[in-house]
Write a structure and sequence with these properties.
The protein is of the alpha+beta class and about 750 residues long. The chain is about 40% helix and about 15% strand. The protein has 23 helices and 23 strands. The strands form 6 sheets. The chain has a 6-stranded antiparallel beta sheet with strand order 1-8-2-5-6-7. Strands 18-19-20-23-22-21 form a 6-stranded antiparallel β-barrel. The longest helix is centred in the C-terminal third of the chain and has 53 residues. The radius of gyration is 43 Å and the shape is flat.
Length: about 750
């Protein structure tokens, strides 16, 4: 309780009369003695109480305890209480209620307001007759009746009623914790593990007093040493506080390693990290590190990622290509690997995409993949839907005539879920380059694109009873993995089955209850998707848009940002550098201030980092992977990320050994400096001419060493050649002697 007690030792000295004259509702009575007990005739109170009902005319006061868990209010005689107040044995004080009880109901969250109203309704009969509720006490049946009417426990009714009284009989008080929770004080937090995001290697620790002393030492070292970097201060701190041993090397080792000591540091999990020290340092000096509030976004990100889109899915379309619908789902058929002739390598369930035209009900595209759903897979489904199907069937190696699936073109609008399209990498290519309007379905409303939603149930029903690898609803089959055990079809075979089914569906499946226009019925067109499509192209054209296939694929690639620097083009977010002949030719890589660096959008394929395509006013311009990243040639972006994680983990493991080695060199530097300072004698400052003469004198000895090295090199060659010549002379004289003889 927050209270202000009367400070005078004798509380009977009031200018306006005895203290008891101020006794009224919602004032606090408190013990005045050291024992903390208010002694009445029939009982004693050992904590502060709040007066909730004061009736001098009937010599009655009711008060509820304020410190421990709330109990039923005590009944005190008014005369006895006033006498104790006037004598100073009981202190009378103003009571300050919690500031949260003074806010308006409109400012409460809906969930809190709902809970408050529920509590108030439960105790309303007790509040309307509060005199009876207090004076009759336990066993009157009023609380039991209120609990029964509210369908609550009696303990709940008591706790709620006490909370109402404690907060000044205000309804807003029921929004506060009650019962045991009202006086609960959480224990101090005990940190047993290092805070912060997890690392790839086990490093860092929970900070202790020893670590704080080390931090303070490094802070002082950093502040008092000119030119010392924070990183160097941290390294010196580790040498001072976290060295297991410092070993003086032998003279031979000192000469070989060029350092005096060898250091052995504690394990990584026994040493604070650099980030822990920096965080402590900034916090200690009131520095404000820039932190982004994830609950807020700037205007561009809000418009791009959060702002609502038009979701009108209920209007009636009038022709082919006016509205397409795309959806994906994990298909219930278990697969095996194409590269295993024994068909024993399981792949699990594939992800299947279908694209349908809403007006004609034609299936315009299909894509089956083992990858997780993402825009990278969505773009392939869109490409298959928009392209010429004859080329698509040739790529699959299927002996079908393209005329059996003669559907191509980009629709005017496309209904999709938010998942793969609710991001910048998809909205860039789809909304800016491919002329199609993306419309999102409402959350939890599959009927907004019910045409394609039903397609999955229809195709799944086609497999049921025909393929033993198709997952059923049987819990027994799921538990025993019957479908996975019977998996036998490959991805290529699923594609073949899908194409055959689509050709059947488009050319022969009649659509029940198809809302055909009067003109179509008069022309005798049956409600078959391909027939409706052909009639619509002839009599209701104008919605489909033709884009060359190669251009279409490039335009569907993911969007990314690039920044042009002097020696490379950086793909933002990936850390990969590229070289581009076009940016060099246009002079865009010439030196610019950082604020004026050129930025472009780029098209990337997530499966290949070798090339990216800059989006410029002159069209797409290719950029090749920089020679600095030659190790990543042929990899995907995910593989590059994985490889970097491995390299980073290895680098962290090597960092400790490098630091131990560096500490030895640093110690040598400090030792040499200290020794040099001891030997240095005071001398006047020399001018530049004297310094030049000194340098020339020092250089003379260096040149003499070089000349000696030259003599030694040429002496061996000269001596060897001279020996060879003398031997030749000896051989020649021997020959002449033989000739003379």
């Amino acid at each position: 309780m927050s209270r202000e007690l009367l400070e005078a030792p004798d509380n009977t000295n009031f200018e306006d009369g005895p203290a008891s004259q101020e006794l009224e509702r919602f004032m606090a009575i408190c013990p005045s003695n050291e024992d903390g007990i208010m002694q009445f005739e029939k009982f004693a109170l050992d904590e502060d109480h709040l007066i909730i009902l004061c009736e001098p005319e009937v010599n009655s006061v009711f008060a509820i305890n304020l410190v421990t868990t709330a109990r039923f209010p005590v009944h005190i005689h008014y005369d006895e209480l006033t006498a104790l107040i006037d004598s100073g044995e009981v202190l009378l004080a103003e009571h300050t209620f919690d500031e949260k009880t003074f806010i308006t109901e409109e400012d409460l969250p809906d969930s809190v307001k709902k809970r408050m109203d529920e509590r108030y309704k439960a105790i309303l009969p007790l509040i309307l007759d509060v005199d009876n509720s207090l004076k009759n006490g336990y066993g009157s049946g009023a609380f039991a009746k209120a609990a029964k009417d509210a369908n609550k426990g009696v303990r709940y009714i008591y706790d709620t009623f006490y909370s109402f009284l404690r907060h000044g009989c205000r309804k807003i008080g029921l929004s506060m914790p009650q019962g045991k929770d009202a006086n609960y004080t959480p224990p101090p937090r005990k940190i047993r593990v290092k805070q912060g995001r997890p690392s790839d290697v086990h490093e860092g620790k929970v900070l202790e007093d020893h670590d704080i002393k080390a931090f303070e030492w490094a802070e002082k070292k950093y502040q008092t040493t000119a030119g010392l970097r924070i990183e160097t201060a941290i390294e010196l701190m580790k040498d001072e506080f976290y060295s297991v041993s410092r070993v003086r090397l032998s003279e031979a080792e000192q000469k070989r390693l060029n350092k005096k000591f060898s250091y052995n540091l504690k394990e990584d999990w026994e040493i604070p990290t650099e980030n822990q020290f920096k965080f402590w340092l900034y916090k200690r000096h009131g520095g404000k590190l820039p932190q982004r509030d994830k609950k807020k976004q700037n205007a561009i990100e809000f418009a791009s990622d959060i702002a609502g889109r038009k979701g009108n899915a209920g209007y009636w379309v009038t022709g082919p290509g006016e509205e397409g619908q795309l959806d994906e789902t994990p298909f219930d058929e278990e697969m095996v690997s194409l590269f295993d002739p024994t068909r024993q390598t399981k792949l699990g369930k594939p992800t299947v995409y279908f694209v349908k035209d809403r007006w004609s009900r034609c299936i315009t595209g299909v894509y089956i993949t083992t990858q997780n759903p993402s825009y990278d897979t969505v773009k392939e489904a869109l490409f298959n839907s928009f392209r010429d199907k004859g080329e698509f069937l040739k790529e699959l190696g299927l002996p079908f005539d393209g005329s059996l699936w003669d559907i191509k073109g980009v629709p005017l609008t496309l209904f999709v879920d938010r998942a793969e399209f609710h991001n910048r990498i998809s909205e860039g290519p789809v909304t800016n380059n491919v002329p199609v309007t993306i419309k999102f379905t409402r959350a939890g409303r599959g009927d907004d694109k019910g045409t394609v939603e039903k397609m999955f149930h229809t195709w799944s029903a086609f497999f049921q009873g025909l393929s033993p690898a198709h997952q059923t609803k049987s819990r027994r089959d799921i538990a025993k993995q019957i479908a996975r055990k019977n998996a036998c079809l490959t991805l290529a075979e699923l594609y073949e089955i899908a194409v055959v089914y689509i050709i059947h569906y488009n050319n022969h499946q009649e659509i029940e209850d198809f809302p055909a226009p009067v003109e179509m019925k008069q022309d005798g067109i049956p409600p078959i998707p391909s027939e409706v499509w052909r009639w619509g192209k002839k009599y209701r054209p104008g919605y489909l848009q033709a884009i060359p296939e190669k251009q279409l694929y490039l335009e569907l690639l993911e969007t990314a940002d690039v920044t042009v620097y002097q020696d490379h083009v950086l793909l933002v977010g990936s850390g990969l550098k590229y070289t581009c002949a076009w940016t060099l030719k246009e002079g865009l890589q010439d030196y610019q201030k950082r604020s004026k660096l050129k930025k472009f959008k780029a098209r990337i394929h997530r499966g290949c980092v070798d090339f990216i395509y800059l989006v410029t006013d002159c069209g797409l311009q290719v950029a090749e992977l920089h020679s600095d990243h030659v190790a990543f040639i042929g990899l995907s972006f995910d593989e590059v990320k994985f490889q970097r994680a491995i390299d980073n983990k290895s680098a962290k493991k090597r960092r400790k050994a490098a630091l131990e080695s560096k500490l030895g060199a640093m110690c040598l530097l400090q030792e040499k400096v200290r020794q040099a300072i001891k030997e240095k004698l005071p001398a006047p400052m020399q001018d530049i001419q004297e310094i030049r003469e000194n340098r020339a004198f020092e250089s003379m000895f260096e040149r003499q060493k070089q000349i000696n090295r030259l003599y030694m090199a040429t002496y061996d060659n000269f001596y060897s050649d001279q020996q060879h010549t003398e031997n030749d002379y000896e051989d020649e004289s021997d020959t002449l002697d033989d000739f003379d003889s």
